[in-house]
Amino acid sequence: MKRVQDHYGIKAKKMGYPARSIFKLQEIMEKFPLVPKNAKILDVGAAPGSFSMYLLERLKGHGSVVAVDLAKTVEVPKKYTNFTYICGDIYDEQIQSKLLELGPYDVVISDAAPATTGQKELDALKSISLAEAVLFVAEKTLKTNGNFMVKVFQGAGEAEYLNMVRRQFQKVKGFKPQASRKESFETFFIGLGFNKI
Ligand SMILES: C[S@@+](CC[C@H](N)C(=O)[O-])C[C@H]1O[C@@H](n2cnc3c(N)ncnc32)[C@H](O)[C@@H]1O
Fold first, then answer.
1. What is d(CA 70, CA 86) in angstroms, rounded to the nearest whole number?
2. Is this prediction's pTM over 0.90?
3. Distance in angstroms (rounded) separating the CA atoms of residues 20 and 50
4. Which has the least CB within 10 A, 88, 117, 174, 189?
């Protein structure tokens, strides 16, 4: 079923972004010091590419973005030479090794979302599983004191997952942006200051 575009969707298209999600990241970055200057960033679940485009604009040619998604391509303009796209599954060990080779990163972010079934608890579990895979990759690829942001669907497994993130980062906050759809169960966890062992 095709969703009706709300004002965020219309505004995103007008500004040249492929998805309305850009406004979620913008809010998060206004509230938290997630992305330092000249950062090297890993963007998981990056298609169609709004987060990556927004980050590349903010980096102003310094730093870089590596993005991964199941989708064949992203709509990030070719002018960004500090952008690398990898088509693949974050659960796939070969993809994880490739991301490791391209790192280490100052920031790992994920807006990845599983295909949903409409069953809230099942969808929440699928989202937590995906978020665990992202955390696993972040643990291997983040620099000491690096930052992390991940989207999860609220429900089963959320509290346990939050505890896992708390063990890895000095400061951890949950945040639901205004730009998240009202009917959505999504929320974001932000981890600042990775405790690399
Ligand atoms: C909400 S969209 C991301 C939107 C993106 N942040 C943007 O700003 O354009 C969620 C994405 O997660 C991706 N995804 C879901 N499961 C994945 C997996 N196992 N590995 C990689 N990407 C995945 C989907 O293909 C989808 O493109």
1. 9
2. yes
3. 8
4. 117
Which atom of ligand 1 lies at the shortest distance from residue 25's CA?
8
| Atom 5 of ligand 1, nearest CA residue | 46
Check: CB of residue 140 under 8 Å from CB of residue 104: no
Among 116, 73, 69, 121, smallest CA distance to 95 is for 69
Residue 137: closest CA among 81, 35, 66, 55: 66
Residues forming a β-bridge with 136: none
Query: DSSP 3-state assignment of 144?
Result: strand
Can you give the C-alpha Rg of the chain in angstroms? 16
Q: Which domains are delineated in the chain? A: 7-194 (3.40.50.150)
Of 187, 176, 88, 190, give the one whose Cα is nearest residue 138. 190
Please tell me if the CB atom of residue 43 comes closer than 6 angstroms to any atom of ligand 1. Answer: no
- pLDDT < 70 regions, the chain: 1-4
Closest CA to 27 of 45, 5, 51: 51
The residues assigned a catalytic role are 151
